[in-house]
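FW: tagging you since you asked about this chain on Friday. Here's the raw sequence from the shared folder, copied in full. Didn't touch anything.
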Amino acid sequence: MSKIGSVIFAGLIATLATFNVQATTLSLVGGTSGVTLPANFSGNPELTLTGLTAQVDQVTVFDSANSATEGLALSGTSSIRFEYLGKEAGYTNRAIELGGFGLLFDTTTSSAGDSVTVTLSPNSNGLLPFKFWTSGGGIPKEAANGDIDNPLAIAFSAITGNSIIALFGDGAGDYDFDDMAIRISVVPLPPSLILFGAALLGLGWISHRRKLS
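HL: got it, structure written out here
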């Protein structure tokens, strides 16, 4: 294979890998679906769900009764954007990414609209590696995606456009899932990268045709 051919081939492999990353999706596995949020679900201005009421009216709930394979699944490696939507909580609550980045948001320091984008792969159970943590009135507990301490819980909205809202219940006894809210989204590829990939594929096809002629 010529040097130019090698470069084109490497570009094709990279492009195909990129398209594979973009093809990743979020999905919900297990849980209790069709749960209606209670009437006391937040009116707190610190929880900015304005315009999203219909999206989070009914949710799928996960708690300590669910298995390690149940939760928010990710089909492959992708760039994931986490956005902090706010909280209504007395405890200190945190959202933590478990793929190496660490702390995403803290209810005592983060502001609604803060966001973090990281590249993540599913864990051994096929789930997105993240968790919520709560000070729990001095008894810290965790609600990891797939492994939730009692009495904590996570409620997920319906997936819309490869984006979902995760609502945390920190076990304070109000059962309204507004103690911390984050949006989780698969980041789409920029159009310029798609065009570049298409160009590489075209060059590869031309090179192949020349070799055959």
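FW: Helices lie at 3-22, 191-212.
HL: agreed, and The radius of gyration is 21 Å.
FW: great, closing this out.
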